[in-house]
Structure to design on (231 residues):
């Protein structure tokens, strides 16, 4: 029986193939919508204006789908030594206005003197934003989000702990499944993509949750050896 790693690799390969196959007809649809819109510009009537509004909707959805596919398919990482606490602070500063509007208190426990980690800054920011936005949606009445960093042997751990609605066992078992989502407008790509990015960093991501007891995501990343200064 294939290992979980092999199964995930096969799923990722199939998803990449599917994304490629979808992009071709999607580009054809978008191009024909643009040509149709140009034809309608020469006609000024109530019918043409209604048709133009419908074309605008289709074009908007085409752009959204193309963005989703590009984000999932393009996961080439460029890893560079990074200060993890600095990156996390940058993300939290960006998220803080949204958190305040949602009555969410952000609590930071960022360990001092963390070793540096190899990081693709853009991809890592995408992962963290996905997780904090998920936490926000899990706390519709407000709550608390704890963000913690800690050294663990030759790795660094990042914990995100929310006081939200939590998840049941079935949801947890399918959380990283492609195209699975509990949200009405969810696409089911956010967490699988986040997991794929963390895997690409040589790390791993786990989650613990119970209904009405909140959720904890933990990301483990390999750290770089410390360079001792000469005496």
């Amino acid at each position: 029986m294939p290992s979980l790693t092999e199964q995930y690799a096969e799923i990722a390969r199939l998803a990449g193939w599917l994304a490629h196959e979808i992009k071709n007809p999607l580009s054809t649809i978008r191009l024909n919508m643009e040509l149709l819109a140009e034809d309608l510009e020469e006609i000024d009537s109530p019918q043409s204006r209604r048709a133009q509004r419908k074309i605008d909707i289709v074009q908007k959805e085409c752009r959204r789908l193309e963005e989703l596919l590009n984000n999932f398919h393009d996961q080439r990482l460029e890893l560079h030594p990074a200060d993890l606490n600095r990156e996390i602070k940058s993300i939290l500063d960006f998220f803080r206005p949204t958190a305040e509007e949602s009555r969410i208190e952000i609590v930071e426990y960022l360990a001092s003197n963390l070793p540096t980690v190899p990081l693709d800054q853009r991809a890592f920011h995408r992962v963290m934003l996905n997780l904090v936005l998920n936490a926000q949606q899990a706390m519709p009445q407000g709550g608390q989000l704890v963000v913690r960093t800690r050294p663990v042997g030759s790795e660094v751990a990042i914990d995100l702990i929310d006081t939200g609605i939590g998840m049941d066992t079935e949801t947890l078992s399918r959380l990283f499944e492609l195209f699975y989502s509990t949200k009405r407008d969810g696409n089911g790509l956010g967490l699988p993509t986040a997991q794929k990015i963390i895997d690409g960093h040589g790390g791993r991501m786990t989650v613990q949750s119970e209904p009405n007891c909140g959720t904890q995501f933990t990301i483990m990343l390999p750290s770089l050896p410390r360079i001792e200064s000469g005496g």
